[in-house]
Amino acid sequence: MSIFNFFKKKKTVDFHTPKLCLTEIPVAITKQIDNINWSTFETAYGNAEKTTPFYLKNLFCKDMEIAMDATHQLWCSLCHQHAFISSASLPSYDILKIGLLELDDLLKVELLDIFQGFAYCSSPTFSNALREPWELQLREKLANDKQLFEDFTKHKDEVIVCFAERIIDALTNEN
User: What confidence score (pLDDT) does residue 124 get?
Assistant: First the structure.
């Protein structure tokens, strides 16, 4: 078999398809996520409708592997490598914030990394491009939650402290 036929027959895997969480997701979280029209938002990979709501729900899965995978996928799609933020970041913000307040410290580290991406990429000094209204709203949410991030600078986990300090720095040093 030629190498061309080998690759032609090989099944492709959609890395953006979320794993199914078999544990129950809190009803209030599910309702909040389901009340958003995700088809009107974009991620780094395209329309948010087919992935973002599932990743956000999986964030609250009791299976840590699935929850951690959800944080990675959210990081990739919402604040891609801290170089780009997508419009789906805005409706995701409040749900991510609930996770930051309620979930395990390992997940908090990953969520703070996402918030750090939001803080960096929504900064007025990030690029010379004009900001979209949703970017300004996202920045406002971050600024309104500055005390929350300051509280995390007193956390017992030094990685959480480091991320929180970076977020505060990105929110404070806007010049």
Answer: 82
